[in-house]
Design goal:
The complex is a heterodimer of chains A (about 300) and B (about 280). Chain A contains 15 helices and two strands. With about 300 residues, chain A is mainly α. Chain A starts with 7 loop residues before the first helix and ends with a helix. Classes of the chains: A mainly alpha (about 300), B mainly alpha (about 280).
């Protein structure tokens, strides 16, 4: 026992104190390191950013309080509006990963020779860095020798340089982003499909349900936990889109493919001078948008807690 | 099982499936196959515009040794390991402790603290960017591997605590109660009872955190400037800028950069998928 090693006097002086209180103190001892780190690098910066969004600051000199001026400027900033609009495209475009992932999972939920390897290989794009995926897709779209160009020429279409077309560029990047995201949704659904209740499926099959009816009435309701996670990670992913844009276009042409996450980075740390205050105002808007989903997730977790108790 | 198992379907369907699967796989992996092929091409292929067909010559050794000799790729890779491995160890240590506290004990602020970790895990990186960069500057850790790793440890401890706490909650409580009755201290309960039981969660989280951090690009660009501390994701980006026309070398670099997470995924696939799909099967 541990107590044996404690000096006898200490035990005598206060025999029951530690054993009476350890259950109340120990959890905080165990929590403290993580709370300090998480508080310092995650929780506090959220509030610092929000506070900073009311200042004009170049990152070096003295920050000057300017009230709501940054937000007023956002209202009339065309680039900000465009970034917001692109976020909407990302949001809806990215959601396609969910049905596509489900489709792939249904396709792969079979038992044939080599299917395990096939599943792993289909999942591959998620494991690889988005930097690499972004690079490949920029070659894919390359206007002089990209594969897309050859395919379009094969069908007798005029080639389009997607990444330099202001109207198409965001869609082009979203497609690249969908590639790993679909793989992620697929793996979620494969796990869900593995855990379907065979009795329900068989019962429905005896009643003559098959195909789409079976999918919508019997299978999808059982896949709801997988769908919930797929929706959450996909929405969070769409609002976090940064890597692909930075790799493929750096926000171009002429800032047409910027989203809030990228625009913020550019404003705060651009080569033309740091505008930390304005950057954090953009980040605050992004944060408030995300807060809707964070609240949704926390509510769901809260419900699960109530059920568990 | 849904969809209908293949052996219950008609013969043409079965053949169609067996033939279609490899083709679908080939089409799906085309982007990755293209990088792999390009990484062994010679300049002839590139100037002739052969990016998507079979390579006309296989310059495996030349290209890969050239990318290591002529670029800081080896440094980038080393930096990635130096950031990733301490992050895995650090965030898991913090999460085992915090997850134990939140999973085993009932106290007033338990759910509130838990929600901080869960919620913080979903915030957009940009809301943290300026203060975190500033914090590292003030600590003298900007542009250092330590500074980048410290941030990753802190941020990943959110997700890991979330995961670990839920995992610990599923453990049979009787084990802990019984140990207490026998006079075990709370520390003994942590080290002797809980830690051995959370090994599967530790395995799952290690591979996930490794992959996430290895592939991190945003924080590498925000917190690191020079090649001396740049991880491989940021490094690849600057290689790509350096040689617009040297795609074979950029490809070789990409393949090398992708290797560690790919290997870990294949070696520890079960844990990787268990971690990623945690919660996907129950409401």
């Amino acid at each position: 026992m541990n107590q044996a090693s404690v000096s006898p006097q200490a035990v005598q002086a206060d025999p029951g104190w530690w054993s009476r209180h350890q259950i109340a103190i120990v959890p905080w001892l165990f929590l403290t390191p993580a709370m300090i780190m998480f508080g310092l690098y995650v929780i506090a910066p959220i509030f610092e950013s929000i506070a900073l969004s009311f200042y004009d600051w170049d990152g070096l000199g003295v920050a000057k309080y300017i009230g709501l001026d940054n937000y007023r400027e956002l209202m009339t900033d065309e680039d900000f509006h465009l970034a917001l609009k692109n976020n909407v495209i990302w949001f809806f475009g990215f959601l396609l990963a969910i049905p596509m992932g489900l489709g792939l999972a249904l396709l792969l939920n079979q038992e044939v020779f080599g299917i395990r390897l096939a599943k792993s290989l289909f999942f591959f794009p998620f494991v690889i860095s988005q930097v690499v995926i972004g690079l490949v897709f920029s070659w894919f779209y390359d206007p002089t020798n990209g594969l897309l160009l050859h395919v379009m020429a094969f069908f007798g279409l005029d080639p389009i340089a997607i990444l330099s077309d202001p109207d198409l560029v965001t869609y082009g990047i979203v497609v690249a982003g969908l590639y790993p995201q679909t793989a992620y949704c697929m793996i979620l659904y494969l796990t869900g499909l593995n855990n379907l209740r065979p009795d329900l499926i068989e019962a429905a099959r005896l009643e003559g349900a098959k195909g789409w009816t079976m999918l919508f009435k019997i299978v999808l309701p059982q896949l709801r936990p997988a769908t919930f996670i797929a929706v959450v990670v996909t929405i969070v992913g769409s609002l976090r889109s940064f890597d692909m844009i930075s790799i493929m276009t750096q926000g171009g042409p002429y800032g047409q493919s910027r989203v809030l996450a990228y625009y913020m980075y550019e404003k705060a740390l651009s080569e033309y001078g740091y505008r930390m205050g304005y950057g954090t105002a953009i980040a605050t808007v992004l944060f408030l948008l995300m807060l809707v989903y964070i609240a949704l997730v926390l509510y769901r977790v809260y419900q699960q807690e109530q059920e568990a108790d | 099982m849904f969809p209908t198992p293949l052996h219950l379907t008609s013969r043409p369907t079965r053949w169609l499936y067996r033939a279609g699967l490899p083709l679908a796989l080939l089409a799906w992996l085309l982007p990755i196959i293209a990088v792999a092929f390009t990484s062994v091409r010679g300049l002839g292929d590139l100037s002739a515009g052969n990016y998507w067909g079979l390579p006309s010559e296989w310059r495996i050794i030349e290209n890969y040794s050239s990318v290591f000799q002529n670029t800081p790729l080896a440094t980038y890779i080393l930096n990635s390991f130096l950031v990733t491995i301490p992050t895995v160890i650090g965030s898991l240590t913090l999460a085992c402790m915090a997850g134990f506290a939140l999973g085993v004990y009932r106290f007033k602020l338990n759910l509130f603290v838990f929600f901080l970790f869960v919620g913080g895990n979903f915030v957009p990186f940009q809301i943290l960017m300026v203060p975190v960069r500033d914090l590292n500057l003030r600590l003298g850790l900007y542009d250092t591997i330590t500074g980048l790793a410290l941030f990753h440890i802190a941020f990943q401890s959110g997700f890991c605590t979330f995961f670990m706490r839920n995992f610990i909650r599923e453990l049979p409580r009787e084990l802990i109660e019984a140990a207490r009755v026998e006079g075990a201290t709370e520390f003994q309960i942590f080290f002797k009872i809980v830690l051995p039981l959370v090994r599967p969660a530790v395995a799952a989280l290690s591979v996930l955190v490794f992959t996430f951090i290895w592939n991190d690009y945003f924080w590498a660009t925000v917190l690191i400037q020079g090649n001396h501390a740049m991880p491989v994701t940021g490094g690849l980006k600057s290689l790509n800028g350096m040689w617009v026309a040297q795609w074979h070398l950029v490809s070789a670099g990409s393949i090398v950069a992708a290797m560690p997470p790919v290997l870990i995924f294949f070696l520890m696939q079960k844990h990787f998928i268990a971690g990623l799909t945690f919660g996907a099967t129950k409401g």
